[in-house]
């Protein structure tokens, strides 16, 4: 199969798996412990059925939204993911360029391999910055300052990975923010020559460029990986979120919220948005699927915050269900990473095209012309589907 022949996200995942060594694909694809939450994110969509309305006369469809004042061509954007340079050279740039050309947003991770400034200069589209609250407040304040100066429109603070999840695929592969060159891993790389030639030879292990200024001068990839591991902050509290609110003037989102109580606390401290997220099933295993946690949070905050959601989105119908349940936008993770690993920027573009076309088809078949047309009346859990409605 060639990239142009991929008809869905699973096809891109297959292409990515063929190109990547096992240790790299497992890092991208895996979750924590028994991977219950990883599977729950996908299985959660099956609990809901779409309720199509017919003959609505809405032959024209517009997927566009406005998110924190920024116009986007579709109600999804590329979410923050780290260490993208091990999947494709300059992976963060490839993702940002594809997002910009598609008119959708892009969120850059603190753990990116291309710097805040480089990505901003390379892609003109709408960009958010995701902050891992590593280290002391000086580090966080400096990253926020750089993101603001580079033109990032919003900040997303990730709060659900204050300690690392037990990702057993990575443990077996001895992977921890860097590739351990054991004989088995070396052989794995040699048997994937396309990945080896394009990603490793002449470049070596990608560095965490955004934190290079905080590490010893001239730190290599291994030393920067060690530095990031040492900077986790398990004592982070809501007081730190209140402090970050004073350091960032634009929209602020708290990512990793799974309960109404925490969404309301975020609102109380001045956050304009939350991201309903379980870190892609990579942190706390047995956490709820995000599509299951979404309705409670939407009901709690109403129109007072913008609610984003991530976790397991592979189909346009998945995105439609989240929108119908009240999400303002969906963040894509593995879906676009599969495209990146399969074919760089064209692979990311293919993933975005697939999801956009699928979502537009869902709009047509449910009688919707715009995102605002999708309401809770368009979705029901399986056991409630045929119950009388008001």
SSE order and pairing:
Layout: H1 9-19, H2 22-29, H3 36-46, E1 48-50, E2 65-67, E3 70-72, E4 76-78, H4 91-102, E5 106-109, H5 116-122, E6 127-131, H6 137-150, E7 155-158, H7 168-173, H8 183-190, H9 193-200, H10 221-230, H11 238-247, E8 252-257, H12 260-268, E9 273-276, H13 290-301, E10 306-309, H14 316-324, E11 329-332, H15 334-366, E12 379-381
Parallel strand pairs: 4-11, 5-6, 6-7, 7-8, 8-9, 9-10, 10-11
Antiparallel strand pairs: 1-12, 2-3
Helix pairs in contact: 1-15, 4-15, 12-13, 14-15
Describe it.
The chain has 390 residues and is α/β, with parallel strands linked by helices. It has a single domain, classed as TIM Barrel, CATH 3.20.20. It contains 15 helices and twelve strands. The strands form three sheets. The chain has an eight-stranded parallel beta sheet with strand order 4-11-10-9-8-7-6-5. A two-stranded antiparallel sheet has the order 1-12. Strand 5, helix 5 and strand 6 form a beta-alpha-beta unit. Helix 12 crosses helix 13. It is globular.
